[in-house]
Write a structure and sequence with these properties.
By secondary structure, the chain is α/β, with parallel strands linked by helices. It has 21 helices and 16 strands. The protein is 47% helix and 14% strand. It has an eight-stranded mixed β-sheet. It is globular, with a radius of gyration of 23 Å.
Length: 548
């Protein structure tokens, strides 16, 4: 028996034989083309169009966050800058395959060097290139094997197109050597309820080898004993029973209320979220309205979309985040195109303040939708770092008719200043993905620093406690809307730190609801204190487990 450490996604456990992800296509050679440049360009254009159409079609089938990710990949495939680079290489005598391969590699390397959100796109771009080249060759794109029996999929990382459409009757669990807890693989695995351990490093697993994938334990067990397999089956059965319990409002064992809300990227996910027991929306991302356009949508178009969401959640709280552009989401009408490090540049509220008319239109549309519906609308600004930014946003939102206005806490400065910021704002919502990245100065995608990307790190937990304390002193609620809320045991810790609500991908609601019911508020505070007193993320998680 050998244990391989990684970062577990969720609390699941599964076992089965290993199936290794198929190797990528052989890269094309630099042999000169035997076709004319126009012929090569036409073939590439057709392959790109077919690839984009396939990605969009996969997105429609997958729905949810997967659709957003796959639509973004389709946009990458048809990016005009990449098309120009490919055509220039073809004009120089290259084949379409070689032009696509080298152009995409060069652009992916640029993104990887930038790190952060843009760095996460590098792996997605490499997958798009493979799919375009497969189209040019008339071959199947590399992907998940079809073995005819259940297996544990082991890969360097999974492309969003593969993760979105995994056959869960065949794929028992996923293990990736790269990636971290907020990579696309992790996010989609959490959304689909897939047992996964990511960021294992160079795990030496072989085809057909039996493994246990223990997400709760952050470990992959190779060649387990029969007793270990039996114990894993017992845990899996107990977990299945817990998550299938009747849906009730989120609460601790002593009746302390902890509203469980949903993170959504478009109104389309409302029905599923409600069916899974969401008590409202804790994070509605509005980027879907803006990312596919060269100009901001009209007030009328925005109002119509917001109205659909608010009507679906009539009588319930709906927290909407205004446009979070910049970093990996540049917009020609809002963000600067020449920033060297956009993750630390004019992003979120900074970009909106710089182009205030975009923010005014969005807030106006939200106020109009609010006046037409019965939901309890809360609106918040992303990437707030100072008291002045909080004051600016809340004043403008109230001027335009919005009643409840708050801020996202995603950078250490706003956590440290939480008491002062919450004198101005009505509430705070903590985005643990970015808060972890900026606190630890660790790229969210890199497996080499996965141990620093965890929201379990005591440095992150202490900042969360500071925000909760700031909320308590001002009588203001503080929620969590980052991926941390989807980790059941960490959810208990967050409540123990003083957080008043939790928002997550809807698929995680049942597990979190079940775990909260196992603990009182005193238990939660004791478990949180144990975690905060640890020296690193692994120690914090172990301390919380022991205390629980």
């Amino acid at each position: 028996m050998t244990e391989i450490a990684g970062v577990g996604i969720g609390q699941g456990i599964a076992h089965g034989p290993v199936a290794l992800m198929a190797a990528p296509l052989e890269p094309p050679t630099d042999a000169p083309s035997t076709r004319t440049p126009d012929e090569e360009k036409a073939l590439v254009a057709s392959a790109v169009s077919a690839t984009a159409a396939d990605l969009n079609e996969r997105g429609e089938r997958a729905g949810g966050s997967a659709r957003d990710v796959l639509e973004a990949q389709a946009m990458m495939a048809e990016d005009p800058t990449l098309a120009e680079a490919v055509e220039a290489k073809i004009d120089g005598g290259a084949t379409g395959e070689y032009a696509v391969h080298t152009s995409f590699v060069e652009f992916a390397e640029q993104l990887a060097e930038l790190g952060g959100y843009l760095g996460e796109r590098a792996a997605d771009l490499a997958d798009v290139a493979q799919r375009v080249i497969a189209q040019l060759r008339g071959a199947a794109a590399p992907g998940v094997p079809d073995l005819g029996h259940p297996f544990v999929l082991v890969a360097r990382d999974l492309a969003p197109a593969d993760t979105a459409l995994l056959d869960l009757d065949q794929v028992l669990a996923v293990v990736t050597t790269d990636g971290g807890p907020t990579s696309h693989t992790a996010i989609l695995a959490r959304e689909k309820g897939i047992v996964a351990v990511v960021g294992t490093g160079d795990a030496s697993l072989t085809e057909g080898q039996t493994v246990i994938v223990d997400a709760a334990g952050d470990v992959v067990v190779a060649d387990p004993t029969p007793d270990e397999i039996a114990a894993a089956d017992q845990r899996a059965a107990a977990r299945a029973a817990a998550v299938s319990a009747p849906i009730t409002p989120g609460a601790l064992a002593d009746g302390t209320e902890v509203p469980l809300l949903a993170n959504l990227g478009s109104p389309d996910g409302a029905t599923e979220a409600l069916e899974l027991g969401a008590e409202g929306v804790g994070l509605f991302r509005t980027e879907f309205l803006f990312l596919s356009s060269d100009e901001a949508p009209s007030v009328a178009d925005q109002t119509a979309s917001y109205r659909l969401l608010l009507e679906a959640f009539a009588g319930k709280k709906v927290v909407v985040r205004v446009l979070d552009a910049g970093a990996d989401k540049p917009l020609p009408f809002l963000t600067d195109a020449d920033e060297e490090n956009p993750a630390l540049g004019r992003r979120g509220i900074r970009a909106l303040q710089h182009r205030e008319h975009v923010l005014r239109d969005q807030l106006t549309a939200l106020a109009e939708a609010d006046s037409d519906t019965d939901a309890d609308l809360w609106v918040m600004a992303p990437m707030v770092a100072t008291v002045d930014e909080a004051e600016y946003f809340t004043a403008l939102a109230r001027e335009l008719g919005l009643r409840t206005t708050g801020v996202m806490v995603e950078v250490p400065s706003s956590a440290i200043l939480a008491e002062e910021i919450l004198r101005k704002a009505d509430f705070a919502s903590i985005g643990t993905n970015d808060l972890t990245q900026y606190t630890m100065a660790a790229d969210r995608l890199l497996g080499t620093v996965a141990h620093l990307q965890s929201p379990w790190h005591p440095a992150v937990l202490r900042l969360i406690r500071m925000v909760a304390d700031g909320g308590e002193k001002n009588g203001k609620p503080v929620g969590i809307c980052g991926e941390a809320a989807a980790d059941p045991l960490l959810a208990v810790v967050l409540v123990g730190l003083g957080v008043t609500s939790l928002s997550m991908t809807p698929a995680a609601l049942a597990e979190v609801r079940a775990e909260l019911k196992r603990h009182t508020i005193d238990d939660a505070r004791r478990i949180a204190a144990a975690a905060v007193s640890a020296g690193d993320a692994a120690g914090a998680k172990k301390a919380a487990r022991d205390a629980a």
